[in-house]
């Protein structure tokens, strides 16, 4: 099925499934619903009314519901209501049957009381697995890993391993990489299912496996984990604790979400937005989320205005000076944002190392100066042609060169310094850097204008 | 190994490998180099001098070299030189032995002559596979798919299928999803290796497989493909031609790169940068890449200046007006960029559908108006306190409300319209929208100022 065909087909299937729910036809519903991919089931679920959802819970086992709850993509404020209409015992059963990493995500988003209720009502083994996962920070390897894994004993034969895999396959998220442990559960090797299939049945796992295994620590940042998985083209990477015990794996599908999410964070912050904006928000919700930034920027803008009012005399004498305020502050803002974008991306992908920071700052300054000179010459020529005012031309193009150079340095140094002292550099968002550069560039402009004042009059 | 341990260990291994190359010790080199992951081999390769690379080519077979060439991450301008020091026949052999999708990427980046030379020198089968892949656009499913796949015949038994997989495994990129075809090579089903392992040996593939298989077309955009793989948590998705023949698959590792790349594109364009900037560029190279944007913006800035010069009389009478130019244009720029970011992201992730465009524009306008009112009140109060000028307060806050509302509309509508007529909306990059909003917001400001002129004097 192509995408369009699938869309059409999927709409028909969705309507059919909803019809069966409304007609209370359990067999009809199960016959078509359970044929679908879990992701598609989650899509249908999200279009249902409360009443239809209640019917669905009657028709499906908690395990069947858990399978597509694993695929739900909810906004942070939607979790709280998710279980409002579900019997608490049934809800606890669903959560316990979900993939543990997803269960943890849900429990972290709901109220403490609900969380403890659900944990107390669910199967003990599930609850204790989930509790132990909840100890990890959300954005670390521990926070995104799954513990439902198959590990092989180093002393097994290939035949024994294959039998073990056949038994365990239904309960584990990833069976294509098998991690090999010694009797103390230390991670000692890796073998892919591909290698197992090609290997001789009587070989020992210890001989067939690869000993050089790349792992991550439970506390490693999820972005570092993503980088490793992407670099090595892994389908999964093992997670170990500080004693090198195998505690879980992070799979490629979780990594795709991490890459998507982290890129979105950098992007939102460059635009000066909070992360949790959604296209389904109302105008009021959107305004609420953006206001804190915008009010902060209004105050910073007023600082600029207050500063400029000191130059009232200068401006009164040469009114034309004010016509170039937007172009100077705008160009400083643009170059500053470019440098900022390079720095934020470089920090978050780990491309910028301690040693290369000075080099980067120097590079940006050089580029700011060079582009400043070229744009300065362009603007000088335009001013000569339009106003026949060489002194004005020198002031404007001179401050353009100076402020574009300074802006690149501000755009590079501020995020790097914030990162150094442990503040998330993305907080130095686009608009703040831009407004800071506004102030500096206009100071340069009026300082230069005052110097040349005599020849302007 | 944790990340730090690996880094230390890896540095030692790298130095050892280079030593062996310089000592011309082939056995020593091969013993440690071939133990490494292909990605690590590619890392070492990129640190080698030309002479060391030449020794490496002598020590490794083209196939062994191809394995880590698959992992090379090169800048567009580095491809041309890649094969400069390699014998053309050996180079052709390497390219032919690479994964076909990666081979195509390389051939697309080098000169036409080199490309045809390499294609004529390589094994005929490889050349014809690669040639057929080169017909697809780079950013489509066809451009990123691999054709080295295992497909199963619908009439096989599970036992026959497993035997077939064992034979084919060494030559195929992905063996964990098996796609099932009928005798005319139409895609008719899918079965995972997991399901095969658990299934009974005598079952027929046709009975064990899932018939509902999600596929993409060769011409589908890579971003759509990424969306499907991410939604469904696939490890691979099959690619079909217009007659539903199975022609290849796109694997999760390629999708991770797509997600990374596309997010980077949106990000760069929001900052008004070209895509191909690299942190290793020199100041001059960086300046060259950024100049086209910046010169364009200089001209747009001069339009603003030219426009403002018409208000010279107004400015001469009330000099304080110019103090608020930066805050008004700045706030319009900030809100416009936020709307632009939402629109670009929404378009590129496919979240914004035809039907929801008007809704989004209305939402943004509403949010622009609401935030404008709040920021307007804040600025009105500040002006009353600082300057005791209610009329000035009304002009500034009134134009803030108007220009923030308009800026959100410009930021939303322009990219949506560009997308509609088939222009990449990301070209409407941050700085351009910001400068356009500068002009409009200052026009509003001076229009309002002229209306209230009498009471200001």
From TrEMBL, chains A, B:
SMART domains: CBS, MgtE_N
Lineage: Bacteria, Bacillati, Bacillota, Bacilli, Bacillales
Subcellular location: Cell membrane; Membrane
Protein function: Acts as a magnesium transporter.
Start and end residues of each CBS domain: 145-208, 209-265
Quaternary structure and interacting proteins, as annotated: Homodimer.
Record family assignment: Belongs to the SLC41A transporter family.
Keywords for the protein's UniProt record, in alphabetical order: CBS domain, Cell membrane, Magnesium, Membrane, Metal-binding, Transmembrane, Transmembrane helix, Transport
Topology in the lipid bilayer: Multi-pass membrane protein
Record has Cell membrane as a keyword: yes
Keyword 4Fe-4S: no
Protein's name in the database: Magnesium transporter MgtE
Transmembrane segments: 291-311, 323-344, 365-387, 393-418
Domain of life per record: Bacteria
PANTHER family: MAGNESIUM TRANSPORTER MGTE
Pfam (any one): CBS
Cellular component, GO annotation: plasma membrane
Name of the gene encoding the protein in the UniProt record: mgtE_2
Native organism: Jeotgalicoccus meleagridis
SUPFAM superfamilies, alphabetized: CBS-domain pair, MgtE membrane domain-like, MgtE N-terminal domain-like
A GO MF term: magnesium ion transmembrane transporter activity
